[in-house]
């Protein structure tokens, strides 16, 4: 590894303390990658401790070769029984799901499974801060939609999708940058200020 | 499925709303199974929402057979970067790790990885309720050891293990039964009452 003197060398690379060269810009990163990088930023700066849960996998067969690690040779993806992300921020229990849509005019509720909605409802009932992060690919905008609003919409309209206007008017825009790529904690602060 | 009239049929089976016949008693269940069953009990009775995180697995190769589910054909277990369990209870962020030991006189600290300790410390700093559940197989006793006490021990003694006496005197015993198999929330209440 080359240790460049201060003020010299490939700055863009070195300014990112988290990752390899291919990750130094948020361009080309998936929505999930951006959230994970943002969580790493929050963790390193002691802002919040939020992690993505591992993908649940049903292991069927495992080989145990001599002198090497156990090798899984047959396994299948399972549906998650909860949301993908949870953790703690300012002493609050945080729980959220991330969803991305190519749709321009609405967010399709089929994107959310019943067990995810139930889990979000359970956490909300117990006093958790629960929300959706919805990424609209068409205009590259990410919204934080508090569970209360999602629940309100489901209770009153029971439609197959939430219109973009409802989200635009009621949800909180997450500003985007490099560190963190998606500053959803800033949007969360705006929401919490209103409580 | 047979629907027995009320008051008849195999009661033991029917009284357990959670699981198949093989699970109706906690005998023979692993420590992890007992914690998972307890979490299910807490969830169904709206006491707490606490889940075990899936085991992290690094997927290397996946087959996509026609007309059937994606089949993972090469994958490896990874080390967890956090604790195994987290969730919410009485509006509090809960985070814990479960450890079992055959040792009679002490709890070996080698059972805890550095990244787990760091994660527990991070969560504690942010206001979370963090603890260890330690199962001593020798006397089938389960203790809830609050992170503050674990930290105290690490700071002051830096030993390879925590003596059983220290745990017996300072930690909280979890009562055991059938529903839930290990009532760690009751032990947690005792701890929280002292705060």
Automatic annotation (TrEMBL), chains A, B:
Tell me which InterPro entries the record gives: Resolv_RecU, Restrct_endonuc-II-like, tRNA_endonuc-like_dom_sf
SUPFAM superfamilies the UniProt entry points to? Restriction endonuclease-like (SSF52980)
Task: Tell me which residues bind Mg(2+).
Answer: 82, 84, 97, 116
Which keywords label this protein? Cytoplasm, DNA damage, DNA recombination, DNA repair, Endonuclease, Hydrolase, Magnesium, Metal-binding, Nuclease
Where is the protein situated, by its record's location annotation? Answer: Cytoplasm
In residue numbers, the region (Disordered) covers 1-25
**What catalytic activity is recorded?**
Endonucleolytic cleavage at a junction such as a reciprocal single-stranded crossover between two homologous DNA duplexes (Holliday junction)
Co-factor remark: Binds 1 Mg(2+) ion per subunit.
Carries keyword DNA damage?
yes
Its required cofactor(s), as named, are: Mg(2+)
Tell me its EC number(s), please.
3.1.21.10
Q: Does the keyword Transcription apply?
A: no
Site residues by UniProt (Transition state stabilizer): 99
The principal location of this protein is cytoplasm
An example of a Pfam family matching this protein is RecU
> At the top level of its lineage, which domain of life is listed?
Bacteria
Question: What is stated as this protein's family in its record?
Answer: Belongs to the RecU family.
Q: What does this protein do?
A: Endonuclease that resolves Holliday junction intermediates in genetic recombination. Cleaves mobile four-strand junctions by introducing symmetrical nicks in paired strands. Promotes annealing of linear ssDNA with homologous dsDNA. Required for DNA repair, homologous recombination and chromosome segregation.
> Mind telling me what this protein is named?
Holliday junction resolvase RecU
Which organism is this protein's natural source? Facklamia lactis
């Amino acid at each position: 590894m080359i240790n460049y003197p201060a003020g010299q060398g490939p700055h863009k690379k070195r300014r990112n303390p988290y990752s390899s060269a291919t990750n130094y810009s948020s361009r080309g990163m998936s929505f999930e990658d951006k959230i994970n990088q943002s969580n790493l930023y929050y963790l390193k700066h002691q802002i919040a401790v939020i992690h993505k849960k591992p993908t649940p996998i049903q292991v069927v067969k495992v080989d145990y070769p001599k002198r090497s690690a156990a090798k899984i040779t047959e396994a299948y993806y399972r549906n998650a029984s909860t949301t993908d992300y949870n953790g703690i921020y300012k002493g609050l229990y945080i729980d959220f799901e991330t969803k991305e849509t190519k749709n321009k005019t609405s967010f399709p509720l089929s994107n959310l499974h019943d067990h995810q909605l139930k889990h979000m409802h359970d956490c909300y009932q117990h006093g958790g801060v629960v929300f959706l992060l919805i990424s609209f690919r068409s205009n590259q905008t990410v919204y934080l939609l508090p569970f209360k609003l999602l629940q309100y919409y489901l209770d009153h309209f029971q439609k197959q999708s939430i219109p973009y206007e409802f989200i635009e008017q009621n949800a909180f825009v997450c500003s985007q940058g490099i560190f963190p790529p998606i500053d959803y904690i800033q949007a969360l602060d705006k929401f919490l200020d209103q409580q």
